[in-house]
Design a protein that fits this description.
Number of strands: 11
Radius of gyration: 27 Å
Largest sheet: 5 strands, antiparallel
Structural class: alpha+beta
Number of helices: 20
Strand content: 5-15%
Length: 493
C-alpha cells in the first residue's frame, strides 16, 4: 500500500512509520535484512517512513551490557585493548560495533556478534520454509520456483553472514582483489579476531545518504555516484566477485570525498554464464534491441525459456520509454510503470538464485541515486556508464595490440576444440546439452501432462474403492469414476 501510494486497501490502512519499524525489528535478523533494501528507496517511501526505516541499517537496539560482556569474554580470555567503549556506535541485525584503542594512537572498530544469532536465524529460516510449504500450492509454477530460490539463496547467505571468521576472510580477499580501485576498505587485525569478534582499522567518514555532511564538506555527489557505479561494474561484470550489501550504513564518504566500503558479511560470486548474460542485457538495452534484451533475460533466467518473445519485447520497449522520459518525475514514472506491470502480471517472469543478490544490489544502488537525483533511474543514469565498461568486462585490454596478441594466444585451443567437434560428428558421437531453462520447461510440460492423468486415475480408483466399501454408495462411486474418466478424456481442458 505504501509503495503504491494508497491510503487504504480493503478498509486497511498502512502502519505508521514507528509501528512499521517496531514490527520489522520484532521479526528478527532475517526479516530486517529483507527490509533494508526498502530503506534505500527514496522513490517508494515518503520521508517520514524513510527516516525510520534507515534505522534498520545501524540503529537497532543493542545488546544489554551483561549479554555484550558474555560475548566479549568468549572472544577474549584477556582484554587486549588499551581502551574499549562499551556503548556501541552502530548496532545492526547481526552484530554491533564498538570503538576501541590498541594503544594511545591506534583506534580500531570492534564488531561483536549478537548472542545466539545463529539459532535465531535458523528459526527464521524454518518459519520462512514452513510458510512456503503451506502456501506453495496456491502459486503458479514459476512463482513457486522463484519463492523457493529466494528462500534457498537467502538462507545460504545469512548463515554465512553470522560467521565473523567468514566476514574477515571476505574483507581480506576483497581488499586484495580491488586494491587498485579508488575505494577504501578497513584493514583486519587477524590475531584479535574470531567468530565472535572482528577487529578492523577505524575508518572515519559519514553515511553516503547524509546530504547535509556532503554540503558542509563541499563534496559533489555526481562523481561519487559514478565512482560507485564503476566500482560495481568492476565487481559484477569484470571480476564476478561483489559486495552484496551496499546500503548507506555500509557506505561511508571521507571528508576528502573518498568512498569507503564496510561490512563484508554478504559477498557473492557471479557465475560466468550469468555475467555474460548481464553484459548482453546491457548491450541490448543500450542499442534498444528489445528482442535481444528478452533473449538475454532468458539466458539470465529472469524470464521463462518458453515466454513469448514478441510480447515481452513490446513490454520492455514500453518500460524503457517510461524510464527514458526526462519530462517525468519519479512518482509519474512509478505510476506508469505499475500500470504496465499490471497488464503483464500473467507473463512468466522468474527469480533464479543467481540473480537474487544482483537484483538486490541494483535496487540499493538505484535507491542511493534517488536520494540526490529526483528522477534517477538505472536505465537513464547508470546504463551509459555500464556500456562504457563492457569492453573491459569482455576481457579487452587497454590497447588493440594487446587484445590481438591475447586472441592469437588462444587460437591453437580454438582450432583444437573445432577439430574435436568435427571428429565427434564424424563418429556420430556428438552429444547435445540442454540448458537449465530448457530442462525447466521440459519438467513443467511433463508435470502439466501428467497431472490430469494422475488426477483421473485417482478419482476412478476412489470410485471403485467406495463401491467395494459400501454398495449403498453406488451413486457416489459412479460420480467419482465418471469424473475421473472425464478428466482422462479431456486432459487438455
Amino acid at each position: 500500500m505504501l509503495i503504491r501510494k494508497k491510503q487504504r486497501f480493503l478498509l486497511l490502512r498502512p502502519l505508521s512509520p514507528e509501528r512499521l519499524l517496531q514490527h520489522i525489528t520484532l521479526l528478527g535478523a532475517s526479516f530486517i535484512k529483507l527490509a533494508q533494501v526498502l530503506a534505500t528507496r527514496n522513490d517508494f517511501f515518503p520521508p517520514t517512513y524513510l527516516s525510520k526505516l534507515k534505522m534498520l541499517h545501524d540503529e537497532l537496539p543493542p545488546m544489554d551490557d551483561k549479554t555484550m560482556q558474555v560475548v566479549f569474554d568468549r572472544a577474549y580470555e584477556k582484554d587486549p585493548f588499551y581502551r574499549f567503549e562499551k556503548n556501541p556506535i552502530a548496532s545492526a541485525s547481526i552484530g554491533q560495533v564498538h570503538e576501541a584503542w590498541l594503544d594511545e594512537d591506534t583506534k580500531v572498530a570492534v564488531k561483536l556478534r549478537r548472542e545466539g544469532i545463529e539459532k535465531k536465524v535458523q528459526a527464521d529460516i524454518r518459519i520462512l520454509t514452513s510458510f512456503n510449504a503451506l502456501f506453495r500450492p496456491l502459486f503458479s509454477h514459476y512463482t513457486k520456483h522463484s519463492i523457493e530460490a529466494v528462500i534457498i539463496e537467502f538462507s545460504s547467505m545469512i548463515l554465512k553472514e553470522v560467521s565473523l571468521n567468514q566476514e574477515r576472510a571476505n574483507l581480506i580477499k576483497f581488499s586484495e582483489t580491488y586494491a587498485n580501485m579508488d575505494v577504501g576498505f578497513p584493514t583486519a587485525y587477524e590475531a584479535l579476531s574470531s567468530d565472535d569478534a572482528l577487529v578492523m582499522s577505524f575508518e572515519e567518514g559519514f553515511r553516503f545518504d547524509d546530504a547535509e555532511a556532503l554540503k558542509v564538506h563541499d563534496i559533489n555527489i555526481i562523481p561519487l555516484i559514478e565512482t560507485l557505479v564503476k566500482f560495481y561494474t568492476e565487481q559484477m561484470l569484470v571480476r564476478g566477485f561483489f559486495h552484496a550489501d551496499p546500503h548507506p550504513g555500509n557506505l561511508l564518504v571521507s571528508k576528502e570525498g573518498k568512498l569507503i566500503l564496510l561490512d563484508f558479511g554478504m559477498v557473492k560470486r557471479v557465475p560466468n554464464d550469468t555475467r555474460v548474460a548481464i553484459i548482453e542485457l546491457i548491450k541490448a538495452a543500450n542499442e534498444q534491441d528489445y528482442e535481444r534484451y528478452v533473449s538475454a533475460s532468458k539466458r539470465m533466467g529472469t524470464v521463462a525459456y518458453d515466454a513469448p518473445t514478441a510480447e515481452l519485447a513490446e513490454f520492455t520497449e514500453r518500460m524503457f520509454e517510461i524510464f527514458n522520459n526526462d519530462a517525468l518525475d519519479s512518482s509519474s514514472m512509478q505510476d506508469l510503470a505499475f500500470e504496465v506491470l499490471e497488464q503483464t502480471r500473467n507473463l512468466p517472469f522468474k527469480l533464479p538464485q543467481e540473480a537474487i543478490y544482483i537484483l538486490r544490489v541494483s535496487a540499493i544502488i538505484e535507491g542511493l541515486g534517488t536520494t540526490y537525483i529526483e528522477n534517477f533511474n538505472g536505465i537513464k543514469d547508470i546504463l551509459p556508464i555500464l556500456q562504457d565498461n563492457i569492453p573491459r568486462a569482455l576481457g579487452a585490454k587497454e590497447s588493440i595490440v594487446e587484445t590481438i596478441i591475447d586472441e592469437f594466444k588462444t587460437l591453437p585451443l580454438d582450432v583444437r576444440a573445432f577439430r574435436n567437434a568435427i571428429y565427434r560428428i564424424s563418429e556420430e558421437n556428438l552429444s547435445v546439452e540442454l540448458s537449465k531453462s530448457q530442462l525447466e520447461v521440459l519438467e513443467k510440460s511433463v508435470k502439466e501432462s501428467l497431472a490430469p492423468v494422475i488426477t483421473g486415475i485417482v478419482l476412478m480408483i476412489s470410485g471403485v474403492f467406495v463401491l467395494i466399501y459400501n454398495h449403498a454408495l453406488e451413486n457416489y462411486a459412479l460420480v467419482l469414476f465418471g469424473a475421473g474418466l472425464i478428466r482422462l478424456l479431456f486432459r487438455k481442458g
